[in-house]
Write a structure and sequence with these properties.
Elements (H helix, E strand, L loop, with lengths): L2 E3 L14 H4 L6 E3 L5 E3 L4 H22 L20 H10 L10 H7 L37 H14 L6 E4 L5 E4 L4 H10 L2 H12 L1 H9 L3 H14 L8 H12 L4 H22 L1 H19 L1 H20 L3
Parallel strand pairs: 1-5
Antiparallel strand pairs: 2-3, 4-5
Length: 328
């Protein structure tokens, strides 16, 4: 049985997105903050997410202050390159990171970008990168870990313990893909979630479940006989260029060959493989088959997890009202 600990973050707290197709819209309405001023819950899911993120972050910081633990400043810079002149570069990066969950289906894009953001995918997925790892929608900052025994390492450990708790992980839940996610209930993050959502254990269970439904639908697609049949047709189509059972294997084959090539040669080979993948995806309807099956499996999962989805929505609404009332 696979067991995965809930992802940790150091400098920011990110909350779950409202999955419209499964969870529906979130509550709206006006309320008053602690100063008696009228303030409304944002209407758009994105603004609601921002409000919950800000509220949880504020509560975490207050908790850390009470525990006399310093939280490092956020490294986030200007949004969308505002005032930096980097908009074009970021647009290019976004284009290169276009997602193809069931194989690249755009030969022109493949000719320009190769495998794009999936160029170094090594997971066992049958599409554009692994999607069945448990998610809690909390970001983990990519940082170089301090050496054990140093003052920086001790400070980071103290911060980690204060944020996420220590000792045995009291909370445990299983995702729709069968993996187990665990977390502590005595850290500042847990305290912030109790304040916002009323019950941290219920929130943890519902959040993990809802945020992994998309991955679970993808997981089911890759095991669906109809998808496996389309994948077999794709493998037959791409064989003249390179024998591979799925797009992920084709990318791993490119990686192995690229190690012995000059950069220009490696790039040319990547584009050749990517174009072959895309043409065969189009010819065999692999991506369309995956997308069609994902809708069906997503609907099945939505029905299976209806109670947790509804509970997640209610707790989000509670958190939004609390954030508005307390001006967080």
């Amino acid at each position: 049985m696979a067991t995965v600990r809930a992802a940790r973050f150091v400098s920011t707290v990110a909350l779950s997105m409202c999955v419209a197709a499964m969870a529906g819209g979130c509550g709206q309405g006006a309320d008053q903050n602690d100063a008696g001023e009228s303030r409304s819950v944002p209407r758009s899911p994105r603004d609601q997410d921002d409000l919950l993120k800000s509220a949880e972050s504020a509560l975490v910081r207050r908790c850390l202050t009470r525990r006399e633990v310093a939280l490092p400043p956020s490294p986030d810079g200007p949004v969308n390159g505002a005032g930096t002149g980097r908009g074009t570069t970021q647009d290019q990066k976004a284009s290169r990171q276009r997602q193809f969950p069931y194989g690249i289906d755009d030969p022109a894009w493949a000719a320009e970008h190769g495998f794009g953001s999936a160029a170094w995918t090594t997971g066992p997925d049958h599409g554009d990168g692994p999607r069945d790892a448990p998610r809690t929608r909390r970001t983990q900052q990519a940082q170089q870990a301090p050496q054990p025994g140093t003052q920086a390492a001790e400070q980071q450990q103290r911060l980690s313990d204060a944020l996420f708790g220590t000792g045995r992980r009291e909370l445990s839940t299983r995702t729709a893909t069968g993996l187990v996610v665990k977390a502590n209930s005595d850290g500042c993050l847990a305290e912030a979630q109790r304040v916002l959502y009323g019950d941290q254990a219920r929130w943890f269970r519902a959040e993990v479940a809802v945020n992994n439904l998309e991955a679970a639908a993808h997981h089911r697609v890759t095991r669906d006989p109809a998808y496996r049949a389309a994948l077999a047709r794709w493998a037959h189509c791409v064989a003249p260029v390179h024998k591979a059972e799925d797009p992920a294997e084709l990318r791993r084959a490119w990686q192995r060959r690229a190690r012995d090539l000059q950069p220009r040669q490696a790039t040319d080979l990547q584009r050749r493989y990517a174009v072959a993948e895309a043409r065969c995806v189009q010819r065999t309807d692999l991506a369309d088959t995956g997308a069609r099956l994902e809708k069906r499996h997503a609907a099945d999962l939505s029905a299976e997890y209806a109670d947790l989805i509804a509970e997640h929505r209610r707790m989000r609404e509670r958190g939004l009202r609390y954030a508005v009332q307390h001006d967080l």
